[in-house]
Specification:
The protein is α/β, with parallel strands linked by helices. Helix content is 41%, strand content 24%. A 6-stranded antiparallel sheet has the order 2-1-4-5-6-7, covered by helices on one side. A 6-stranded mixed sheet has the order 8-12-13-3-14-15, sandwiched between helices. The chain binds adenosine-5'-diphosphate (ADP) and magnesium ion (MG). Adenosine-5'-diphosphate binds next to helix 1.
Length: 372
């Protein structure tokens, strides 16, 4: 799938903007603060119905405006679709082909975008919540069953925690909620494990292609249970863990185990990335992770996602810039932002369409660096 037209109205620093994109490599070049990340953010929003920056939707609306609109025209084989989002101060309306979408989960992932953002460098040293968020967003884009199961689990977890805050816990209701929390978790654990296994099938290959090293990157899923392929085994493991921790939960008045406490750990040559990898290596691991995601999404959905690379080039030497461009799967629409005209190596210029972003307007730009 690719986006051939993106229209923004009153979105961030954009007043009105319409951009025609190419199915291949698109580069947005412009000075800081002009609206490059905002453009990627609008596409990411159409993929996930949320910004990648940890903010409320209302901040996406241009200052002093009442609402904001994002329209995306997509092409997939011979199918063309219109996706629209209107963001109001009190909520958002989503539609596909002018048909309003009742459940957000029916919209998420229809446009599948994978984003590299400089803030992804936090993945290793941030709290486990950040890494779980990564798992949930990516799995959610590929499966609305996953989103529904996660929503069910989170609702039950909230109820269970509310019971735990009461002075006299109704044990029968409390146990009933705990029991209902088991099955969604079995399914989520299986999907998370499979996803991590699939990432492990790609990440080292992409890392080695980028770095020309022999380093081995692995991701370990730190689950609440000892993983087993048999659902019944996972189920019984969970039940017995909840029984063991019940008294502790009652004492501490919170749910201490469950998928809301899981994590993933990255290693390089079997050492923790957090302790061992340099900043440069961490960046390469993130890029390899994003390229792995592209491959997995294609495997799961038979469609290539759109790859959004925000400020990725400036930190790479010319050799690595070239390698990255070479490695990008040819069928993936890629949108790259940069501030630096020096990033536009001839090898990149030959393959890309370039747009200049200035004060919230985007114009296709002629292939002559001196014009910047
Ligand atoms: N809701 C908003 N209304 C108007 N301008 C905004 C809004 N949110 C952000 N901006 C402006 O957008 C600009 C930042 O855009 P961004 O895409 O992050 O820049 P960059 O080109 O460096 O990636 C800043 O000038 C900021 O003031
Ligand atoms: Mg930016």
């Amino acid at each position: 799938m690719y986006i051939d037209q993106l229209r923004l109205k009153s979105f961030r620093n954009y007043d009105q903007c319409a951009i025609t994109l190419t199915p291949g490599i698109n580069i947005f070049i412009g000075k800081n603060g002009q609206g490059k990340t905002n453009l990627l953010e609008s596409i990411y929003f159409m993929s996930t119905t949320k910004s990648h920056r940890n903010i409320e939707d209302v901040q996406l609306i241009k200052l002093n405006e009442e609402f904001s609109c994002i329209d995306c025209h997509t092409c997939y084989e011979d199918q063309k679709l219109w996706f629209s989002a209107v963001i109001h101060k009190k909520g958002k309306n989503l539609s596909i082909r002018n048909q309003s979408v009742k459940k957000v989960s029916e919209f998420i992932g229809k446009i599948n975008a994978v984003l590299f953002s400089p803030t992804d460098m936090n993945l290793f040293d941030a709290s486990p919540k950040y890494r779980r968020h990564f798992l949930d967003v990516e799995l959610g884009k590929m499966s609305n069953i996953y989103i529904n199961q996660l929503n069910t689990y989170n609702r039950l977890l909230k109820e269970r925690n509310a019971y735990l805050k009461q002075d006299n816990v109704d044990r029968i209701l409390f146990d009933a909620i705990t029991e209902q929390m088991i099955l969604p978790q079995v399914s989520i654990i299986k999907k998370r494990q499979l996803f991590v296994d699939k990432l492990n099938g790609y990440i080292t290959k992409f890392y080695q292609l980028m770095t020309e090293s022999d380093d081995v990157i692995k991701i370990k899923y730190d689950s609440v249970v000892n993983y087993d392929i048999d659902d019944e085994v996972i189920k019984h493991d969970l039940i017995s863990k909840y029984e063991t921790t019940r008294d502790r939960d009652l004492l501490l008045r919170q749910t201490n185990i469950g998928i809301h406490r899981e994590d993933i750990v990255f290693t390089i040559n079997d050492f923790d990335v957090l302790a061992m990898a340099s900043q440069g290596q961490k960046r390469m691991i993130i890029i390899a992770l994003k390229l792995s995601l592209v491959a997995i999404i294609h495997e799961y959905t038979n469609e290539y996602p759109i790859l959004l690379l925000d400020d990725v080039l400036s930190e790479l030497d010319n050799h690595k810039k070239n390698r990255l461009i070479q490695i990008l799967p040819k069928k993936v629409q890629t949108i790259i932002t940069t501030t630096d005209p020096e990033d536009l190596l001839d090898s990149i210029m030959n393959q890309a369409v370039i747009y200049k972003i200035e004060k919230g307007s985007a114009n296709q730009w002629m292939k002559n660096k001196s014009m910047i």
